Amino acid sequence: QGEEELVLKDKPVQIYAHRGAKDRANEATLAAYDIAAKDGVDALEIDLRMTKDGVLVAMHDKMIDRTTDGIGNVETYTLEQLKRFNTVGVFNGSEMREPIPTLEEILQRYGKRETYYIETRLVGDQLKMEETLIQLLNDHDVLASQFVMLQSFSDASLARLTELAPEIPLTKLIRRGEFKLDEALQSPYQTIGAEAGDLHEADVQALRTAGKAVHVYFTDSDTEREEQQRVNEYGIDGLFTDQIEFTKKLLETE
Ligand code: G3P
Ligand code: CA
């Protein structure tokens, strides 16, 4: 058990709770983030949308139809209107109804106890939310790399975030089916977020050799477990999991 082994050992793979513990509570709600926080993950993953009156809320989709009892585009509602809807889900045979949280409510609830891995989700390339986001993080005293990581599919958003908060680590997300190693290697961002199905071991090795970190997300719940096992063998840096308990066991048994 010499120093050599310690030096050679990689950092542990980080676990990011994808929209909270979405296997046990309505995604992107305080209930889902509470479970994830209790499970002890490395970061809470939060997708952001902006309301008509400029408030940032945790919501993945542009439309509220899939996850709530309402219909329509998030952007067409004020916060007060949006709060009249609830997210709806069924867990263990019981219906769960939870409000849509604002980012501010999330930051107030967990403060500096959690790390936030926040995704700016844009309609087109309209840069509406970046300044509000950075201001809010600053107001809550978490605008620092130990508390926040930011991610986006949008190059325009990442460029703006770089201007506003150069100290915060940024992840360039690549859409499923669009991963190209040469483009990823040329990305100005330190971390690449790719869909598991697009990644081969040689890609991960090439990115890490070039000094980039690789975070992996999964879009197919039927294959997520086997895909987690597969990409974990490649020496990735982190993964966005929908199944925290499974992922913790997977990483513990290495
Ligand atoms: O943010 C990583 C991953 O969540 C990207 O996919 O569509 O679930 O936001 P999506
Ligand atoms: Ca996301």
UniProtKB/TrEMBL annotation:
User: InterPro entries of this UniProt entry?
Assistant: GP_PDE_dom, PLC-like_Pdiesterase_TIM-brl
Q: Which PROSITE patterns match?
A: GP_PDE
SUPFAM superfamilies with a match to the protein in the record: PLC-like phosphodiesterases (SSF51695)
Q: Which domain of life is it from?
A: Bacteria
Q: Where is the GP-PDE domain?
A: 13-251
Check the record and name the PANTHER family matching this protein: GLYCEROPHOSPHODIESTER PHOSPHODIESTERASE (PTHR46211:SF14), GLYCEROPHOSPHORYL DIESTER PHOSPHODIESTERASE (PTHR46211)
This chain's protein is named Glycerophosphoryl diester phosphodiesterase
Species, as recorded: Shouchella xiaoxiensis
Q: What is the lineage of its organism?
A: Bacteria, Bacillati, Bacillota, Bacilli, Bacillales
